[in-house]
Every structure is written in structure tokens, then in C-alpha cells.
What does this fold into?
Amino acid sequence: MGGGMGGGIPIGVGGGGIGIIVLLVLTLLTGNFPGTGGGASGSPFDPLPPAQSPGSAPDPNDPLAEFSKKVFSDVDATWAEMFQKAGREYRQPTLVLFTQGTQSGCGGASAAVGPHYCPNDERVYLDLAFFGELQDRFGASGDFAQAYVIAHEVGHHVQKVLKIMDRVENREDSIRLELQADCLAGVWGYTAEKRGLLDPGDTQEALGAAAAVGDDRIQQKTQGRVDPESWTHGSSEQRMKWFTRGMRNGDPAACDTFSGEL
It folds into this structure.
């Protein structure tokens, strides 16, 4: 799937001991808050100001664009509150909606790249057409499936702020980074459920999306065979497992994908 669902993340440089470092950072982050989240202001879905897109932008009044901005705002506000309660600094990312193609701090991206986070400019780039492909080609439908995609990308921003990205050295580390973003998306899902924002079946929609974007599922769909040696994001089973772990615990400390088996 290339850069989609977290593409544009470079393989960084750094020393060893990544599992211990990630565990310590996440434990520090979660030491002082209950993990129930909440919007930073009165409404749980405060819309963001219109994003300045360097590429072609969709109609800002499009229902899917409005929904995406509301979810992004809620995920962002939830993490801002968690960081504040933990006494840590949080930087707000920016949402850019695009169609066909765009330019970012990580270079050019066509529609084939899909949603992605660029750590160089700390922006989430969201191709709204991807949601149609997610439903029509891979069978993952529903608004919470779309919310999972957005929460995954904001999860990458959380990793950037915590400097977890800086220590990714190889393809296996990159897969662990992606699965951790799935788990962090689940943490936000936990807070949304506690605040009564979910409808019956929403969790299954998110699990369906996580399964749909597993490397094995995508490879089977697109090339008729599965090649684990070329995976970049993890299998459907792994992605569902880590999203579920975050959704059940609501605690980022449970998202240490860098220790032990995946």
C-alpha cells in the first residue's frame, strides 16, 4: 500500500534499546491521567479552521470533509488533554484534505498514497477518495472505520511528539511503529466510547478497517499472493490485535509494540 495509512514516515537514526525507551516514554505519558479523554472545549467535535492545502482541496462543505474535520479535532483534543494531565508538552498537528494529489514537507504524493502523516511538517494528509476505496474495494464501511483511519494518523503525530519515530532503524521497527499507531487509535476509541460517542457496531467497523488494510489482505487482493518479507504495516490479525488492545485498555502504556512478539 506504499505510503498509505502512515506513509511518509522516514526510517530514522538512533541507538538501540528502543523497546525500553518506548515503554518508559509511554509510562511517563500515562502516569497522571485516567485514560478517559475528552474534548478540550465544550463540544466534542469542534471544527478546525479550513486547512491550507498545497494540493487540490475538496469542497469544505462536503459532508465527509466536515466529518473528517470533526473527528480530527476530537482525536487531537483528546491527546492534548492527556498530555496536559501528564504534565507534558503537546503540539497540535494540522489537517490537510486533498484529492488526486498534494505536496507536503515529505514531497509529492498522488492519490495512490492515500491518507498519511508527514513528520517534517507535522500535518495529516487525508485523501477523502480513500474512504470510498476502503469500502468498495476492501469491504470496510461505516463512519467509525473512517474515524479509525484518522485516529491512526494522529497516532503517528503522538509518536513524533514523543520522539519515538526518531529511533526507528529498520523495516521491523517501522511495522512496530504502525501497529503502535493502531493501538493509539484504539486508545482514542476507548475515550470516545466512554463519552457515549459510539453507536452499536462502531467497534466492528474499526476492526473491519484494520483488517482491510493489513498487508496480507492488501497483497492478496492486489497481487494474488502474500509476501511477509515486504510488509510495511503488519498483517490484518496484528492490526486488529493492537487496535483492540488500545480500545480495551484506554492506556497508551499498553501500546508498547516494541517489546516482545507482535
